[in-house]
Amino acid sequence: MIKNKITLIFIFFNLSFFSFSQVGNITVKYNYSLDDTKDIYGGNDFKKTTLVTNGKESLYSERNIDTTIVYANGEDITYINKNFVYYYSKNLTKKTITYKDRYVGMDFLIKDNNYSVKWTLTNNSKKIMGYTCQEAIGEFSCKSYKAYFFKDIPFSDGPFKFDGLPGLILEVLSDDGTVKITANEIILDNDFITNPYKDDIKFISYEEARKKYQLKFAKFANLTTDENGSVTIPKRYIECYVN
């Protein structure tokens, strides 16, 4: 009886591995939280996000849980409805990501050709959704991170700009506790991955986008209210735009 049970477990494991390794595309849904309130220069963001990937290209989308406020410039305030979706299109072969940034300004299409995380693998592991994931540590923008990836899904991809590991990333945690992105559902499918920016030809680099945000930050820093109060916007969200 015990032998039969072990055999069934072994068969189930191999069927699961076969399914993951043979599927065309994989969809992963994540819970995303950014709660950086150690000073007035940190941002807050709570979203439901989705990654559709085949290991060569992917589409990552973000949907706000609540309506958020975006300061478009030094005078106007934009309210983004929680049903609005932001898209990040990745070419994993060329190592590029294209997107419209909610913070810099939605009129700018950004192509980042230089994003990367220098990961170091550790011997630690963690269960995510029942899957044993290996730990990696790395630096991205101004924060240190731990990522947990599942080697049995052989796609070097993950949420946002976190990728480059020998397996699909199911969780990303910043060491300061401000960022947490955790998978809550994995779907095997063969849907096409669409690039919403495939017909766009004008874009700015990430470096240009960062400079635009720094100018916007400086403009806010020089504003005062009628009560002689000061106005500011965050220096950092999941990425740091101002040193």
Structure, explained:
The protein has 243 residues and is an alpha+beta fold. It has one domain (24-221): Clam (outer membrane lipoprotein receptor (LolB), chain A). 15% of the residues lie in helices and 41% in strands. The protein is built from two helices and 14 strands. It has helices at 2-22, 206-221; strands at 25-35, 44-53, 57-64, 68-71, 77-80, 85-91, 96-100, 109-112, 120-128, 131-140, 143-150, 168-174, 179-189, 204-205. The strands form two sheets. The protein has a twelve-stranded mixed beta sheet. A two-stranded antiparallel sheet has the order 4-5. The longest helix has 21 residues, at 2-22. Mean pLDDT is 83; it is low at 1-18 and 71-77.
Question: Mind telling me the C-alpha Rg?
Answer: 20 Å
Structural class: alpha+beta
> With helices defined by DSSP (H or I, 4 residues minimum), what is the helix count?
2
> What is the global morphology?
globular
Give, in spatial order, the strands making up the sheet with the most strands. 9-10-11-12-13-1-2-3-6-7-8-14
Broad CATH class:
Mainly Beta
Major sheet details: 12 strands, mixed
